[in-house]
Write a structure and sequence with these properties.
alpha/beta, about 20% strand, about 280 residues, single chain
Length: about 280
Amino acid sequence: MHDSSVTPVAAVSEPAFTARRVSTRLGDVAIRECGHGPHTIVLLHGISSGAGSWAQCAGLLADRAHVIAWDAPGYGESDPLPQATPLATDYAARLDALLDALGISDCVLVGHSLGALMAAGYSSLPTSRARAYVVFSPALGYGGSPRADQVRQGRLANLDQLGIAGMAKALPARLLSDAADEPQRAAVTANAMRLNQAGYRQAVELLCGDDINRYSGFTPENCRVYCGDKDIVTTPEQSAAYAQTHELAFGLVEGAGHACYIEQPARVAALIGQALTNKTGRA
């Protein structure tokens, strides 16, 4: 379903994003946060990004909610996971420990790309504190697929040959549409420059070893799926098929590639804001 009924909120130039490190029962987690209000929104980034990538989008939601973006385990200043080949539930356990440490009992959980797979893992926990989920361009995972080894080898070879800096330089062309401006391209590169090799390798294992379809916590009542209309990584067709399989609401983010929340922060913020008050998951 194409969602054209949501009015984007006004853009902001520089949101007030505060960084800190939170000690949890399972290790330290670095977060960035802003905002206030009766709601909590938690933002999960993808494999080549970090908490800071949500800055513009988070700032647009700051007058409606307490907004928290994490650096996933092994990213930024967050402690890595102990597992060499983690599953989404391993990331989910660290997320639940973070929410426990922050005293958060209810939130809207937002996942982009690999963050959507982590959110799916979180939805399966009996201790889930999320009342609604919004996922953008979900990475489905290659667990059990013949392509898993090929994708793993390709990503790790790319890391070994190009290094973090080389990967970061190449990412804007893949993650953004041709219409993206230079500040948006610079933001993608800057966030990728903060990657840690060990954390990235763990995330590659998650991508290649797990499958979002293993997790059944996303339901038509609590989850909606979106994708940039110009996404070449997790295409609109792939995202729509996933949503249809699980009877989840689906919509497009116009004028956006894979990193839709960087390219169209106002549109994405409006869609997330819609989930604060509408629990049906139907756009």
